[in-house]
UniProtKB/TrEMBL annotation, chain B:
<dbReference type="InterPro" id="IPR019886">
    <property type="entry name" value="Na_symporter_ssu"/>
</dbReference>
<feature type="transmembrane region" description="Helical">
    <location>
        <begin position="52"/>
        <end position="71"/>
    </location>
</feature>
<keyword id="KW-0812">Transmembrane</keyword>
<feature type="domain" description="Sodium symporter small subunit">
    <location>
        <begin position="8"/>
        <end position="83"/>
    </location>
</feature>
<protein>
    <submittedName>
        <fullName>DUF4212 domain-containing protein</fullName>
    </submittedName>
</protein>
<keyword id="KW-1133">Transmembrane helix</keyword>
<feature type="transmembrane region" description="Helical">
    <location>
        <begin position="21"/>
        <end position="40"/>
    </location>
</feature>
<dbReference type="Pfam" id="PF13937">
    <property type="entry name" value="DUF4212"/>
</dbReference>
<keyword id="KW-0472">Membrane</keyword>
């Protein structure tokens, strides 16, 4: 079978499986639709949470960014796992005990105010929509390469598929579909990594291989990589930091807090039977997530080494990287480079007209490297590789068999679709339940409520698809913005709702608004108002990253601090919450008396 | 003296557990992985510089251990104060 047919077979089979499961587990009631009837085992739930969690950003984009950033890529690794510790300890068990199924519901009840819950709905919608834009970017890239269509068409196909099963399945369908998707995506990620680790280091486990010796040399893999990239003028792999240490610190913190504040992840913990299971579920989710997250650094480093070794034969053979014959001839470049050139995500321009590919950092400040390059007749870097393609191209770069490439295609799509579906659930429940039912029309029938939810899903998909055609950054970067928004708005409000009996509605509302506006103001200054290109206003804030050199992706942590501070100050000068609310907080804190999550109020 | 079984005491026990775990959580990620990474990089774990290992591998393993430790300890506290689910 040729490569294209193999890919169609793998993607087709995996889709048939998901659709089969979605039909089998169709939801009957609102409670089943949103919370799967509260009947999911912690390990099953952990696996589904992991699939929900590991989106196109984790699967497609993250390892590529790590490959690009080196050590600094750890901010994604720690940020997107460390948040589970916060989630397990600070939020999940208490929200489960509270026994409602949406985040705005908790905020509305705890802060005894429709206004607070409406603000929470707005925060949730902005964070979730930003997140889906990142997913759509990933879906577009995956389809562009594997179905041989343009990335725009890829996005349209993805929109239709996500919509179909999110609408028909509901939470119960999504939960079981996501278990299947987890299995597909984790195999797709680890199988090529194992092959590559074996080839480069002789270790089966990529986690060990990354710390192993580079085959055929007496150097460790990381030492070899460090020496190759520094010789070519890139930052040293094991120490390079994005921006500053402060920025890395804030970026990591922002992702961690955002993890614990993202409604589609929190919602997961409403679907387990008990408070005890809610605590364990977070642990199981992290186990399943860690399998990918500890493999990703190996994928990133090994792909980088493989890529350099592909275009420069001196990497493997040793000897002078700048020797004329070391750079490969463009007409003998491997097939995978030709295939990716068609998508426009990999580009070669022969700047010095010698027909060979020179790949180095021509913007380096290391004069020694520039002198050597000039002496060798190099006239600038000739290869541009979009980091978002690294994972998808990885098995091709390592020349693995066709079925592995087919598997990776299916995995990338599984990752993007499962997360998009989870986010759509969060959006639809927020609109139909927390906005339409509790604010506009309390007497709405259960059927009409479900219909409102489905319509809001459709609108969300169209908006996200439209913005996904013109994304504000790489998939992982766009997703990081969504985390910043969740971190600065929802997390502090939920946490204060549990850990402070005295926090009142005025404080919580002011805090959420202050955190949200602060973060959006900074993000939109860099990325445009609602991510529409051309509406950036960097001059107003004094240039890019003007706040202590912190990038917009990392500002969420500062936004969260603003949220806490404003809430605290406003709380001090307004009336304390009524006694029954304080009693409710007491009750939420102890596990005894937890009930199944019900659809009714 | 009889042990204090009030809900205040339960909450105090919970918070002290949270505080301990959060310190460890901070030390392995922001501490070993970021702030002290350069210092730790002079030590090697196999082919890994230690700071780099904490940032890209070790902190994640420790996060998992922390959550299961928390779940177990919270179960103990629940039973000690007799507030566990029936």
């Amino acid at each position: 079978m040729d490569l294209q047919t193999t890919i169609y077979v793998f993607v087709g089979l995996s889709f048939a499986l998901y659709i089969g499961i979605a039909v089998w587990a169709r939801a009957g009631s609102t409670s089943e639709f949103y919370a799967a009837g509260g009947s999911v085992h912690p390990i099953t739930n952990g696996m589904a949470t992991a699939a929900d969690w590991m989106s196109a950003a984790s699967f497609i984009s993250m390892a590529g960014l790590i490959s690009n950033m080196g050590y600094g890529g750890a901010l994604f690794l720690m940020g997107w796992t460390g948040g589970y510790v916060l989630l397990a300890m600070l939020l999940a068990p208490y929200l489960r005990k509270f026994g409602k199924f949406t985040v705005p519901q908790f905020i509305g009840d705890r802060f005894y105010s429709k206004g607070a819950s409406t603000i929470a709905v707005v925060c949730l919608l902005i964070a979730s929509l930003t997140y889906i834009i990142g997913q759509m970017t990933g879906v577009g890239i995956a389809f562009a390469r594997f179905l041989g269509v343009s990335s725009d068409t890829g996005i349209y196909v993805g929109m239709a598929i996500v919509f179909a099963y999110a609408v028909f399945g509901g939470m119960k369908g999504i939960t079981y579909t996501q278990v299947a998707q987890y299995i597909v995506l984790i195999l797709a990620f680890t199988v090529p990594a194992i092959f590559i680790s074996l080839a480069l280091t002789g270790n089966v486990l990529p986690q060990i291989g990354l710390g192993g010796d580079y085959r055929g040399t007496d150097m460790t893999l990381l030492a070899k990589l460090d020496s190759v990239v520094t010789d070519l003028g890139f930052g040293k792999y094991t120490t390079s930091v994005p921006g500053s240490t402060l920025n890395m610190f804030m970026y990591t913190l922002s992702l961690m807090i955002g993890t614990a504040g993202l409604p589609h992840v929190i919602m997961r913990f409403f679907t387990v039977p008990s408070v005890k299971d809610a605590r364990l579920s977070a642990g199981w989710a992290l186990v399943f997530i860690a399998i990918l997250y500890t493999t990703a650094p190996a994928v990133g480093a090994m792909a980088k080494l493989n890529l350099h070794a592909t275009v420069n034969t001196a990497v493997k053979a040793g000897g002078d990287l700048f020797a004329p014959e070391a750079s490969i001839k463009a007409d003998s470049q491997p097939d995978w480079m030709n295939r990716w050139e068609k998508t426009g995500l990999l580009k070669w321009t022969d700047k010095n007209g010698d027909g060979r590919i020179q790949y180095y950092n021509d913007k380096t400040k290391d004069k020694g490297v520039l002198d050597k390059a000039a002496a060798a007749g190099w006239k600038g870097n000739e290869l541009m590789v979009n980091p978002d393609i690294i994972v998808l191209a990885n098995p091709e770069i390592a020349l693995l068999p066709n079925w592995v490439i087919g598997l990776v295609a299916a995995g990338g799509l599984a990752a993007a679709l499962s997360t998009a579906a989870g986010l759509l659930m969060a959006i639809s429940s927020a609109v139909s339940h927390d906005l339409v039912k509790s604010v506009f029309n309390p007497d709405i029938s259960e059927q009409k409520e479900l219909l409102a939810g489905k319509i809001s899903m459709a609108v969300a998909i169209v908006v996200a698809g439209y913005l996904g055609l013109n994304p504000p950054g790489f998939a992982a970067g766009t997703v990081a913005l969504a985390f910043g928004i969740a971190a600065s708005s929802l997390f502090p409000a939920i946490m204060m709702g549990i850990f402070s009996k005295k926090m009142n509605k005025e404080g919580a509302m002011a805090g959420m608004l202050a955190g949200l506006f602060f973060t959006l103001f900074y993000v939109f200054a860099h990325k445009g108002i609602f991510f529409i290109k051309g509406t950036e206003y960097l001059d107003l804030i004094g240039g890019a990253n003007s706040f202590f050199g912190i990038t917009p992706e990392a500002i969420g942590a500062v936004g969260a601090a603003v949220n806490f501070l404003v809430a605290f100050l406003v709380d001090k000068v307004t009336a304390p919450p009524p006694a029954h609310i304080q009693a409710m907080v007491e009750a939420v804190r102890i596990p005894r008396g937890s009930k199944l999550v019900g659809g009714a109020h | 003296m009889k042990e204090d079984r009030s809900s205040q005491a339960y909450w105090k026990a919970t918070l002290s557990l949270l505080f301990k775990i959060l310190i460890l959580w901070f030390l392995v990620s922001f501490g070993a992985g970021i702030l002290f990474a350069d210092m730790l990089n002079s030590i090697h774990l196999g082919g890994y510089p230690l700071g780099f290992w904490f940032a890209q591998q070790g902190s994640i393993y420790i996060f998992i251990a922390l959550i299961f430790y928390y779940a177990k300890k919270m179960g103990d506290i629940d039973r000690r104060f007799n507030v566990q689910e029936e």
